[in-house]
Design goal:
It is built from three helices and four strands.
């Protein structure tokens, strides 16, 4: 399943965006079930610009049966609206997500929310 969305007000706005800046913006995308951003949860598997300047985003979920893809896609659209002209989200399942992918910051956020991790 993939989604192509997003238009920046200035079409050239995406031209020289470093991937680190985009990854930082994606920290505003919060997993609705766990309350932690998708980057620190380790759900972001890859970011790259294709030859036609479209941002390709490889994402996974904590479980393939998760019904929240539309919510995450809407949050991603909002987080990237001023950074890239177009993006495509590709949902990937290999390798499967596991808690070992959570960053130290993500673990701190989860502990602050009451998770024992």
């Amino acid at each position: 399943m993939s989604s192509m969305t997003g238009t920046a007000p200035d079409a050239s706005a995406h031209a020289a965006r470093p991937l680190g800046e985009i990854e930082e913006a994606l920290k505003d995308v919060i997993d609705p079930e766990l309350g932690v951003n998708i980057v620190d949860l380790g759900l972001l598997y890859g970011l790259r610009f294709s030859d036609d300047s479209v941002l390709d985003i490889d994402l996974t979920l904590t479980t393939p049966a998760c019904p929240l893809t539309e919510i995450l896609e809407a949050q991603i659209d909002e987080a990237l609206k001023d950074l890239v002209e177009n993006h495509i989200i590709t949902w990937v399942w290999t390798p499967p997500w596991g808690p070992e992918r959570i960053t130290d910051d993500g673990r701190d956020q989860m502990r602050a929310l009451g998770f024992n991790i």
